[in-house]
Amino acid sequence: MRGKTRSAHCLQVLLVLGLMMTAPLLQAADRLVVYTVNYPLQYFAQRIAGDYAEVVFPAPADVDPAFWQPDAATIAAYQQADLVLLNGAGYAKWVGRVSLPRSRLVHTAAGVAADYIETTGTVTHSHGREGSHSHAGTAFTTWLDFRQAAVQANAIREAISRLRPQYADVFAANANALESDLLALDTRMQAIVSAAPDTPLLASHPVYQYLARRYDLNLEAVMWEPHTLPDAGQWLAFERLLKDHPAGWMLWEGDPLQESIDRLQQHGVQSIVFDPCGNAPGEGDFLEIMSTNLRRLDRVFRSNDSGGVFQQGIE
Amino acid sequence: MDSLYLAWRYLAFNKLRTATLVICVTLIAILPLALQVLLAESERQLLARAGSTPLLLGARGSALDLAMNALYFADETPELISMAADEAIATSGLAMPIPLYVRFQARRFPIVGTTLDYFGFRGLRIAQGRQLALLGECVIGADVAERLGIGVGDSLLSSPEALFDLAGVYPLKMQVVGVLARAHSADDRAVFVDLKTAWVVQGLVHGHEDVTRGEDSSVIIDRTQDNVVASARLVEYTEITADNIDSFHFHGSPDSYPLSAMIVVPNDDKAGTLLRGRYLGSEPPYQLAVPKTVIEGLLATIFRIKEVLDAVILIVAVATVLALVLVFALSLRLRQREIQTVFHIGGSRSTIARLLAAEIVIILLAAALLCALGITVMQPFSDELVRVLFIA
């Protein structure tokens, strides 16, 4: 009797060991390959899918994914993916110029398409007097409205769950955790702005439209690049804008040139980096970058509330 | 054996008469047989293609035109639908839409604008080169490559729709990036491009110099703060290269862009039935056709025509047999002296009958041999013949 029990135990141990050894293999074979067009989508997809997907965002670190053009080999990799996560809102214009398998494309922002912000000020053209004249654009940094980001994350969960319904519960749990994090950012952002709601702000580039709309920021944008010193015309336009919009802070996408910071300070404008995080950060992840952004904004709004400038230079 | 030898010698002596008789019998036998072979092949081809295509969405009108254009890339373009119809199917969650825009040609081969899903759906494999990646690229079928003598790295020019359309769109020079493995279907005779490239061929998507920055002011008719109107002098690019691809853009809403048809692949039978129900009434401007039913209808018509043809051939065959009988009866009169000689050397009436029967057997055998040879020669080309005669 004892011998039989021992044999049964041995068999059980062998079975468990066998399962443990084959599980990674099975999981690897079952693993989805997901390609994305920007870093936020990569972050959302990886958080939701966990080890059940290899989520790839192949853009080089030094490019703006919105205006990047992948080469033929990279396009071939996108074509082979189980899912290609698009942002929507006209983000990554290269998607319109390449061939991708339509059945595997997911427009993550489709759920908020009715709320897209049409950008103005773009020069349009037509061919002959009778033609259409529209080249109007759409603001595309949709994820900076954290509620919209949650909608995008949910679209990712649905798409991944359709392909691997057996893990739908895992994906739902991960998506809920991600949604909680995003909504926490949303709540915190609202709280920050509520400290001094009408604080005038400037943006170095028109990429904060959804952030401004959702959190009711009093924000005006110029068309500057962080790594380029604005020319005389741009400074002139900036000075005119500043007269009507007396902002004390300018939001930059990336670290600006020291010369730009200094010259802005001469106009009483401090610089702050609010990274939209379109591309993968050198350090940290989406949540950490957004938390840093919010921390910086918090200091801006609190400094404005108390009526003083808390620090010279960039934050 | 003697009868056979004598009959053979007689037929060999009267070569012209024998050849005429053999040709008559061969023709009357080969016609229905060849027709049968071609119809069987056309039935196989038509049904195989139609049977593997669950549903077709197109504008209301002739379902046959829709099926022939979408399945076999026939010249007749059905009334166009828009991308909005494709979006409606995609968002229904019931099926996968595979849009098709089959309207233009390149050196007499149809240009098929579609998405990459089409290749997976039809099980098409790239034999040389790679899959479509960028705007302006094309992948060609095996027949196109063979007949035009082109391959990966060559280019192919789209043909203008109308020869003297001076105000029309410039032909697009497409880069051949891949050649498909032979599929023994209409896909072998097609030039595949991305749907967007098909719209470039039409001029709906185009590229040109930036008119807001261009140095040649003579192309500008009018300029306001937020709009620039360019004249027809503004040259649009006729080849898409790495340098100008960024300038290619849509005019108008992509939802309004045209399609000739759409293959609809339902998730399951229930989804297919639900979708068909949605397009049943007279309200929707589209029809959702079952290609197999449409093609079976076409085949039923073809077979009705075949029955008439069979009847005609039967009548002609009877007339030919009667003519042959007459030829033999007359030849008996002409051969009275030969027959008398046979009697004189001891031959009986049955010997004469055996001689005549042997002649008929030899003629029939020769005709049967020719018939078999003809059918054997035709058989390998039946696939191509059917496509050229009935489908293309």
Question: Could you list some keywords that capture this structure?
Answer:
heterodimer; A: 315 residues; alpha/beta; four-stranded parallel sheet; disordered C terminus; B: 392 residues; alpha+beta; 2 domains; two-stranded antiparallel ribbon; 16 strands; 49% helix
Largest sheet of chain B: 10 strands, mixed
Shape label of chain B: elongated
Main sheet summary of chain A? 4 strands, parallel
**Overall pLDDT of chain B:** 86
* Number of distinct beta strands of chain A: 11
**Overall mean pLDDT score of chain A?**
86
Number of domains of chain B: 2
**What helical percentage do the residues of chain A reach?**
40-55%
How many H/I helices of chain A? 9
Strand and helix order of chain A: HEHEHEEEEEHHEHEHEHEH
Point out poorly predicted stretches of chain B. none
Q: Radius of gyration of chain B, rounded?
A: 31 Å
Q: Which spans of chain A of ≥5 residues are poorly predicted at pLDDT below 50? A: 122-135, 306-313
- Protein structure class of chain A: alpha/beta
Query: In what range is the share of β-strand residues of chain B?
Result: 15-25%
Distance between the termini of chain A: 75 Å
State the end-to-end CA separation of chain B.
53 Å
Reading the helices and strands of chain B in chain order gives HHEHEHEEHEEHEEEHEEEEEEHEHHHH
